[in-house]
Design goal:
The protein has 22 helices and no strands. It is mostly helical.
């Protein structure tokens, strides 16, 4: 309360600064005049903006609050959502993205029509819209409201209930975020994302550092004392190898999580729309792979704070209060306003990305082709803005009625995304790698999954019991994999009944002038990313730091091996670059 005025002023100033800078950068573009400019930033995004925008679109308050909440209540097994996403980014960079850019798609449903027909395109478009409006956008708004309410304690300041405070914050965030998405288009979203991404990374590092300092002070020391407290007194919380009752059982990484991450990074319109706006394949691959590297830094910035909070502020009413409580308890008051600006930026980023993607899918895949095929470019953009405002209004009204705290914010979002992510990734994979897929198979498989998953979520509660060791419980990620296999069988059977009559040539290029030269360092960087992923899991396991009896020699040996591999790859890539330059000169 004593420094509330300063905190609010710095928060408002830095938030306004991001908006002004983004507006200046975007003001000279023609993105507001054409559909391609508004939805895909005129296909002019470089690798830096793609990576920054993809990262911050993914890193919202849902991740900050939810992942820290998981590690606060259990261990670091929840980091799998972030770290293992690197596998999906590699697949996206070398498998999905070249085909998307070669074909010149604006939305994923365009691929569905070319491969399966108009019926499947409409079905996938509806799945995206329902998922975004009922799960993605509301969870993002709810997470942001929880974070700000815990940091500022608006209920106490204004003498209102927490429910009323959350509702007010949801409305404010919803309106401000919509301004970015509706008026700026994808380029404004990407630019503001990159700026906010830098602020968020810096702010997250500060939270970890001051969190350790606060924990150290509570034990009569400083930063080093805080680190030692976690390493020596709570090593089991540093374990990322989850058991059945943990947020992410280790086996789930190889079943449903692999599918979920492939959907999110390879087919989800919210994410891939940035890569679809790449100026060429090189910049697209660079942006996607760099975002994969940044994702592997996330466990240190988002999951570790929950471990610190468990030692510093045990016994919170909800695990999801861990991160904002740590911020309020550990950060110096002059810094809180800056951090809140970064946090607000991350919330706005994900929220406006969902809005932008939803309006893109609605306009390009539903409204324009069905109701007004001859709609001009300028009128398409104007209509998209109106649709964006409509979607924002719906989300603002719907979000306060969610109840996500009982199961945990992050688990709630990922679990209910299962209604649409698995059928979409299934028919995409079949469409790319098999001729068996047909319209009938895609529709029947999707209907089966929705019914099957609804039964799991709503009619058999004894099975849907996450974070328990109950004999009858099955983690929803295993349900993902089971449904995936059954859908493959359905698609195969339907291909015998009604074979696909469409011919799909994934090698043909729509725009012959588009540069499809790959990133020369892409493959080497991908190899290093997988190696670092293995190293990260080693460190956060009983073989590394998650034990009281640490094998320092083994830890040092594995670390040195990674360093040696890194140096060798760098030398090889320098030699490859010089060879390429010589060949070009000749």
């Amino acid at each position: 309360m004593e420094h509330l005025g300063f905190t609010l002023v710095t928060f408002i100033l830095f938030t306004a600064m991001v908006g002004v800078i983004s507006g200046k950068i975007v003001s000279g573009s023609d993105d507001q005049k054409t559909a391609k400019g508004y939805f895909l930033a005129g296909s002019g995004l470089g690798g830096t903006f793609i990576a920054g925008s993809m990262l911050l679109t993914n890193l919202s308050a849902e991740n900050l609050v939810g992942l820290s909440g998981q590690s606060y209540g259990a261990n670091m097994s929840g980091m799998a959502w972030e770290a293992t996403a690197v596998i999906a980014t590699v697949v996206m960079a070398f498998v999905f993205l070249p085909m998307y850019l070669r074909k010149g798609y604006t939305t994923l449903p365009e691929f569905m029509e070319e491969r399966y027909g108009i019926v499947v395109r409409r079905m996938v478009s509806i799945l995206f819209l329902v998922g975004y409006l009922l799960v993605g956008i509301p969870v993002c708004l709810y997470a942001g409201a929880i974070a700000f309410n815990q940091i500022f304690d608006l209920g106490e300041i204004f003498g209102i209930s927490d429910t009323m405070a959350l509702t007010i914050l949801i409305v404010l965030v919803g309106i401000i975020g919509a301004l970015y998405a509706v008026f700026g288009g994808l380029r404004a979203v990407a630019v503001s994302d990159t700026i906010n991404g830098i602020l968020l990374v810096v702010g997250s590092v500060i939270v970890v550092v001051f969190g350790f300092i606060a924990l150290g002070k509570a034990n009569g020391g400083g930063f080093i004392t805080g680190v030692q407290d976690v390493l020596n007194n709570a090593p089991e919380k540093l374990n990322a190898i989850g058991g059945k009752g943990d947020p992410v059982p280790f086996a789930c990484i190889f079943t449903g999580m692999l599918l979920a991450n492939l959907f999110y990074w390879g087919t989800n319109q919210v994410l891939i729309q940035r890569a679809l706006g790449a100026k060429n394949l090189k910049e697209g691959q660079k942006g996607v792979l760099i975002s994969g590297f940044l994702k592997m830094m996330v466990p240190l910035l988002l999951v570790l704070p929950g471990v610190i909070a468990a030692r510093l502020v045990p016994g919170l009413a909800s695990n999801d209060f861990a991160y904002p409580t740590l911020v309020a308890r550990s950060l110096p008051w002059p810094v809180i306003g800056l951090f809140c600006a970064a946090l607000f930026g991350s919330i706005i980023s994900t929220y406006n990305s969902f809005l932008n993607a939803a309006s893109t899918v609605f306009m390009m895949d539903i409204y324009k082709p069905i109701f007004n095929p001859n709609l001009s470019e300028e009128k398409t953009v104007k209509m998209a803005k109106k649709v964006g405002w409509g979607f924002a209004a719906f989300a603002i009204v719907f979000t306060p009625f969610l109840d996500v705290l009982s199961t945990g914010l992050y688990d709630f979002g990922r679990s209910f995304t299962g209604f649409y992510n698995i059928p979409i990734i299934t028919i995409v994979l079949i469409g790319m790698f098999s001729k068996k897929g047909s319209t009938l198979g895609s529709v029947c498989a999707t209907i089966f999954h929705v019914i099957f998953y609804a039964c799991y979520k709503f009619f058999f509660p004894a099975i849907d019991t996450p974070f328990t060791n109950a004999v009858c419980s099955i983690n929803y990620m295993h349900i993902y994999a089971i449904s995936f296999l059954i859908m493959l069988v359905i698609i195969f059977i339907c291909s015998k009944i009604a074979p696909n009559t469409k011919e799909f040539d994934k090698g043909s290029q729509r725009d012959k002038n588009y540069d499809m030269t790959p990133w020369v360092h892409g493959k080497a960087f991908a190899v290093w990313l997988i190696s670092f992923l293995i190293y990260e899991y080693f460190m956060f396991s009983p073989a590394g730091l998650a034990t009281t009896d640490k094998n320092i020699a083994l830890i040092a040996g594995v670390t040195i091996a990674l360093i040696v591999e890194t140096v060798v790859l760098i030398i090889m890539q320098k030699g490859k670059k010089q060879e390429t330059q010589v060949q070009a000169a000749e």
